[in-house]
Amino acid sequence: MTDEPSEKAADGISATVGRVAFEIERQLGLPLAPGLYLVATPIGHLADMTLRAIAILARADIVYCEDTRRSRTLLAHYAARTPLRPYHEHNAEEQRPRVLKELADGRVVALISDAGTPLISDPGFKLVREAAAAGHAVTAVPGPSAALAALTVAGLPTDAFFFAGFLPARGGARRSRLAELAAIPATLVFFEAPTRTADTLADLAAGLGNREAALARELTKLHEDVRRARLADLAQAFALAPPKGEVVIVVGPPEAGEVSDAEIAARLAPALETLSIRDASRLVAETLKVPKGRVYDVALGLKQRERS
Questions:
Q1: 3-state SS, residue 118
Q2: What's the predicted TM-score (pTM) here?
Q3: Sign for the pseudo-dihedral over CA of 85, 91, 92, 98
Q4: For 92-119, b where at least 16 C-beta lie within 10 A, e where not — what string?
Q5: Among residues 195, 164, 146, which one has the least CA distance to residue 262?
Q6: Rounded to whole angstroms, how far apart are CA atoms 161 and 71?
Q7: Exposed/middle/buried for 274, CB within 10 Å: 0-12, 13-18, 19+?
């Protein structure tokens, strides 16, 4: 046995290399109209760059990015020498007029994020809106997306999903946000920082019920890992050992007959504005067909959080 490819396989590889070389050369030779190009970049694996994305970044007049040091490594990998300038949440207001002026001057401007598809939990939508309003062409150059990559490997329903981005860092605000999301009849997708993952999983389990879920980390990288389990099991697994690397949490839709604490809290909040805890609990318990004692406990928790 040998690891060497057969002559037939080697011929096939050679043909593929030739075809790829032909296509990238063709992309580099196509006319590139002025405008704003939103270019997706790898979330980990450098080879996930599309040929079209490489060609556009190589030929653009300027590339705006979150971190010039990080993006310089990407461009250098493909021998692209296009000038880089920063565009991030701290300087967007200052840089946006400059970008719009460059577009007005007929330049080709590319916008990228540190990883994945621009504007997804990153700044940029105001730039796109103003560029389009000014009559400039805005073109999407699709490619990698951590949210979609996690969704597709989670093993959860994909016919309807809701991308919720990052949840609030503070516990109270996070639980309130989950109360708003609890009844959405779709798979939920969240980004989260490794240091907050344990607390978020605990709040997800308490607020959404023990739904099916998946935690994906380091997607497309050497140590990619996807854990598929119920929320309570994931919360327990990561309670003492926070995950390493970038994290995406995918949570299945509400299950048949399931009523979460978050949904109870969402119904209680307006009722408590005009009714006592006892009366509000009875009303919500009858509406949702759940035990009054459980609703009463949730109501007490809401009142305690209001006072804290």
A1: coil
A2: 0.81
A3: negative
A4: beebbeebbebbeeeebbbbbbebbbbb
A5: 164
A6: 30
A7: exposed
Q: What token pair was written down for 248?
A: 């995406």
User: Which SS3 state, helix, strand or coil, does residue 48 take?
Assistant: helix
pLDDT band at 64 (very low <50, low <70, confident <90, very high): very high
DSSP state of 41: B
CB–CB of 235/255 below 8 Å? Answer: no
Tell me the per-residue pLDDT of 173-229, one tens digit each, with 9 for 90 and over.
998 898 889 888 899 999 999 999 999 999 999 888 889 999 999 999 999 999 999
pLDDT band at 3 (very low <50, low <70, confident <90, very high): low
Round to whole Å and give the CA distance between 18 and 68.
Answer: 32
Cα of 279 vs its chain's centroid, Å: 41
268, 298 Cβ separation under 8 angstroms = yes
Distance (Å, rounded) from C-alpha 287 to C-alpha 283?
6
Question: Over the stretch 19-58, which tens digit does the pLDDT of each residue have?
Answer: 999 999 999 999 999 999 999 999 999 999 999 999 999 9
For residues 151 and 136, give the distance between their C-alpha atoms in angstroms, rounded to a whole number: 33
**Dihedral sign computed on CA atoms, order 55, 59, 61, 65:** positive
The residues that bridge with 111 in the sheet, in sequence order, are 38, 64
Residues 6 or more apart whose CB falls under 8 angstroms from that of 176 comprise 168
For β-strands 187-192 and 247-251, DSSP reports them as antiparallel
Start-end of H helices in the chain = 7-29, 51-59, 68-77, 92-104, 125-133, 146-153, 171-181, 197-208, 231-238, 261-272, 277-288, 292-307
162 three-class SS? strand
Per-residue pLDDT at 259 exceeds 80 = no
In the chain, pLDDT over 70 holds for what percent of residues? 97
Distance CA 168, CA 122 (A): 15
β pairing state of 212-217 and 225-230: antiparallel
Amino acid, single-letter form, for residue 50: T
Q: Which two tokens stand for residue 231?
A: 């929320």
Residue type, 52: R
